[in-house]
Structure formats: C-alpha cells, structure tokens
Amino acid sequence: MAKTKTTRYDVAEHLRTPEEMAAYLEACLEEANGDAAFIAKALGDIARAKGMSQVARDAGLSRESLYKALSGERTPGFDTILKVIGALGLKLHAEAIHVNSSTAQQANDPC
C-alpha cells in the first residue's frame, strides 16, 4: 500500500487578491474573541502572501521585527498593527453593535 504524502496547509498560498486578504482578516477579527495575538498571526499570514520584505519596507520596519511581531507568539503594539495594515493596503473600520447595558458595562470594566 502506497503512503499518502501530505503537506502543511498554508493559508498564505490562497490569499491572492486584496479582496481575499480583506475577507480573511475580517473573518479572523470575528473569530478572534479578543485575542490580539490571533489577529497579529492573521496579519502575518497576509503579509507572507503579499511578500514580507515588501510589507516591512512599506511599514517602515525591519523584516525580522515584522516576523516577530506577526508570529502570533506576542502581541505587537497598536502602532505596529496600524503600520502593517496600511502597508498591506487594508483599512480598519468600525461598526456599531447593539448590546445590553450590563454586557457593555462588563466589557468596559477593567477589573
């Protein structure tokens, strides 16, 4: 019986257009559940699809620091996230959601 050869799935290989990249980031934002490292990893996937060296240049960062920031093992600063999003040709937008007042109060309570 022949062995089946498998390869690791890499989402970056499937992000070819700006629209696909934006849809992927949007889906990750919805699924992140407040996990900033998850979003950083998603941005790293998009950056790899676009070309990490070019994204680093456009963001004004070194390629090495960009790899570290978007590895998903740490949470990069918001300024870094904004630079990367701009370098990727994407933008963030806000949308109002309706929540009850007790849920909103719990979400805003730092304790």
Task: Please supply descriptive tags for the structure shown above.
single chain; 111 residues; mainly alpha; 434 Repressor (Amino-terminal Domain); 56% helix; 0% strand; globular
Give a summary of the structure in a few sentences.
The chain is mostly helical. The protein has six helices and no strands. Helix 1 packs antiparallel against helix 2 and helix 3 (52-59) packs across helix 5 (78-87).
CATH architecture: Orthogonal Bundle
Portion of residues in helices?
Answer: 55-70%
The count of DSSP E runs of length 2 or more, i.e. the number of strands, is 0
* Low-pLDDT residue spans: none
User: What would the principal axes of the Cα set say about the shape?
Assistant: globular
Number of helices: 6
| Domain module tally | 1
- Give a short account of the largest sheet: none
Strand content: under 5%
Task: Give me the CATH fold name.
Answer: 434 Repressor (Amino-terminal Domain)
Quick one: CATH class? Answer: Mainly Alpha
Return the average pLDDT rounded to an integer.
Answer: 90
List SSEs in N-to-C order. HHHHHH
3D architecture notes:
The chain has 111 residues and is mainly alpha-helical. The protein has a single domain, classed as Orthogonal Bundle (434 Repressor (Amino-terminal Domain)), CATH 1.10.260. The chain contains 6 helices and no strands. Helix 1 packs antiparallel against helix 2 and helix 3 crosses helix 5. The protein starts with 17 loop residues before the first helix and ends with a helix.
